[in-house]
Design goal:
The protein is mainly alpha-helical and about 270 residues long.
Length: about 270
């Protein structure tokens, strides 16, 4: 029996320290909700989760870009629906102005309405969405994934397309002018039908990208969760076990520290 070195106490202290560290880890995981509180908990898992987290953020940004592009196209189509109504009325006026029973004064009234509608179409051509022209005809590159891939969002040209400008600049004040206006408005309506079809195609494709990004984000979040999120049931069990070990270890350390006192009996 020795006094200077209490092997039992040293072993008990070492085991108590280990149990205390495990208990602290369990407390940190349960309070934070994360399995990886310190890099030492799972260095490889931390690296993977960081990359997944960055990709989730980029995917979310791409999804927002796609959503804004869809809103852009919807705004375009909202204006073009009204342009369609205006062009339809203009084509009707160009036919009415060819009526041989109409006088020059009658055609002047038709021309007044025709030019007003044409001015409306020209005004729509100047509209913008958050400072970006809606009808400049420029195709927009929409970011569709976390790596910067893009979709070519086809543009609509109301400002300089002759299909529209010819119709809006025509006059139905004469029969000859009305005949030309009819031809031009028919071309404009045909062009408008094509433009709205392109917008519909843009919206449909962007909708697919939006759904794809939403699904990807959910899957990435689930993968990251498997690595970083704590299993509360399992960790609660670990906490209870470590708590008991700390309490019993503390009691055993006290017993081990009292063992050298038995030496006094030999000396008495």
């Amino acid at each position: 029996m020795v006094i200077n070195t209490n092997i039992s106490a040293l072993n008990a202290a070492s085991l108590l320290q280990q149990s205390s560290m495990n208990l602290s880890s369990s407390l940190a995981r349960l309070s934070s909700g994360s399995k990886i509180v310190n890099p030492s908990d799972d260095s490889a898992g931390l690296a993977v989760s960081m990359k997944l987290g960055a990709q989730i953020a980029r995917t979310g940004a791409a999804q927002q870009n796609v959503g804004n592009a869809i809103s852009f196209n919807q705004t375009q189509d909202g204006y073009l629906q009204q342009v369609n109504t205006a062009l339809t009325r203009m084509s009707e006026l160009s036919v009415s102005a060819q009526d041989v029973t109409k006088t020059t004064s009658d055609r002047a009234l038709y021309q007044q309405e025709y030019s007003t509608l044409g001015a409306y179409v020209n005004d729509v051509a100047t509209k913008s969405f958050n400072g970006v022209s809606l009808f400049a005809g420029t195709a927009l590159k929409v970011t569709t994934d976390s790596e910067g891939a893009t979709f070519n969002n086809l543009g609509v040209n109301l400002a300089t397309s002759t299909s529209y400008t010819n119709a809006t600049s025509d006059s139905v004040a004469t029969v000859t002018g009305a005949q030309k206006a009819l031809t031009d408005t028919e071309k404009a309506i045909n062009q408008l039908a094509s433009d709205r079809a392109n917008i519909g195609s843009n919206e449909e494709t962007l909708g697919y990208y939006n759904n794809q990004l939403s699904s990807l984000n959910n899957n990435l979040a689930a993968a990251k969760s498997q690595i970083t999120d704590v299993d509360v049931a399992t960790e609660s069990t670990n906490y209870a076990k470590n708590n008991i070990l700390v309490q019993s270890g503390t009691a055993m350390l006290a017993q081990a520290n009292s063992m050298p006192q038995s030496v006094l009996r030999l000396l008495s």
